[in-house]
TrEMBL record:
It is found in: Cytoplasm. It is an enzyme of class 5 (isomerase). PROSITE patterns: P_GLUCOSE_ISOMERASE_1, P_GLUCOSE_ISOMERASE_2, P_GLUCOSE_ISOMERASE_3. Belongs to the GPI family. Keywords: Cytoplasm, Gluconeogenesis, Glycolysis, Isomerase. Pathway: Carbohydrate degradation; glycolysis; D-glyceraldehyde 3-phosphate and glycerone phosphate from D-glucose: step 2/4; Carbohydrate biosynthesis; gluconeogenesis. One of its GO terms (cellular component) is cytosol. This is Glucose-6-phosphate isomerase. It comes from the Bacteria. GO terms for molecular function: carbohydrate derivative binding; glucose-6-phosphate isomerase activity; monosaccharide binding.
Amino acid sequence: MSRLTRSPAWQKLVHHGEQMKSVHLSDLFTQHPERAQTYAQQVAGLHVDYSKQRITRDTLDLLQQLAADCGVLARRDAMFAGEKINTTEDRSVLHVALRNRSNHPILVDGENVMPEVNEVLGRMRQFTDSVHEGRWLGYSGERITDVVNIGIGGSDLGPRMVCDALASHGLPGLRVHFVANIAPSEIASLLKTLDPARTLFVVASKTFTTQETLTNAHTARRWFLDHAQNESAIEKHFVAVSTNHKAVAAFGINTDNMFGFWDWVGGRYSLWSAIGLPIALYIGMDGFERLLEGAHAMDEHFRQAPAEQNLPLILGLVDVWNSSFLGAETLAVLPYGTRLGRLPAYLQQASMESNGKSVDLDGQRVDYATGPVVWGGAGTNGQHAFYQLLHQGTRLIPTDFIASIRTHSPIGEQQAMLLANMLAQTRALMLGRGLDAVVAEMKAAGIDDETIARVSPHRVFLGNQPSSTILFPQMTPEAVGALIALYEHRIFVAGAIWHIDSYDQWGVELGKQMAGELLPAIGKAPVAGSFDPSTEALLSTIHKHWV
Ligand SMILES: O=P(O)(O)OC[C@H]1O[C@H](O)[C@H](O)[C@@H](O)[C@@H]1O
């Protein structure tokens, strides 16, 4: 047994978890109708209701005891103070510095990072303003109308998700596109729609070594030069966002047109850095700074609120509760409305790259469940697709429901229907519907006894699926910033309890290395014994059809 699972707080939670597995949420509400007030909070413009989680006061007390024993808040302070809490890479973890709007000094190796952060923000403002005001022109003197972000993972998912979320805040006259996948159709079909004289490429890569990004960027460069016929035109059409000066220069991008960030910004936490340039181009630098403000408000709450009122701490502990003590294997993220439709994909990287670990900070293999599988999709669409399993499947699936109350696109009854559907789902998942109610309803509908006996069991809903609901008045940059920061800190808290390094991602390396070994073998007859038999058989099939 590990030190964590042997600890008294953990053991008590194991015992409590066994008891809570047989408790129904509807009974918890009958016993304590004020749960809805007790287990809800307003922070940084978000209203967060976690009263439909399978928790009681005892659960939260035990979880808080576990957090205290694990030193979660001390680790939080270490993160905010710039200590190198990413120990396997010997790096600080300072995405909070990127949105440190109060500008208090944050030191890394004794140096205040804020002047550099502010300098890049200033350059982003100058650049985005010059594009918006038509002072930055293409090689033939035309205004930029299309921005293409070429990046993948953290250099794609965050900006793409935020641009979608804040589409109602988009400035006129500028479209933003994203290319991530190495699949050729992705860049090929986009380039067909663009005018090179009016297109600006943002090549975004923290390392500037990522195969997909560099390959797509070279393709874009060739396509551009085919039209512009002049290498000197490149600097008007290609800018880079990276930590790797040398590689940017080697690619042929003028480093005057490079926006830097630092190794203490993890890729999946980088949308607040210059990686957010497409967001700033899309909604303007004022809008981007409002996004930072929203995240900063959540940071300040996380940094200062007492443990029992600290929302990211509480939600992170509930995540640990669901995964490690109730046995939930997944977390479903269900934003209502299409604007946040990409949030599940974004959180997949944020959470699964961070907490998908099985070795602890002391190098020991863990003996408890860590990060859940994060998945989901926009409601109401999902209701007509995968919700069946949430309602009547065999698994415990905690869900997060997320919606803005008002819409920027008022039309008909849609927004009221959207919200009614969301509330109906949280309610149905909690309450379920027992056999008696099903039989009564069928009788009232005039259905015969034989049919009732045969079909009624299939119409029973056990309920008791836990959920949290996050509401905010409108999809503003501040709300989106606060929402993302809330998840980031939840992930931090869970990782701190699980005693893992949430800021490395060694698990992505093996596949990259093997892809490098396999690339020369694609399209050729495999040499027996060069790979494993299954891979060789697949290579043979590819070879057969390769032209
Ligand atoms: O920004 P880049 O250096 O191109 O990296 C892009 C992505 O690739 C990697 O494989 C990592 O798993 C991600 O964390 C990262 O966001």
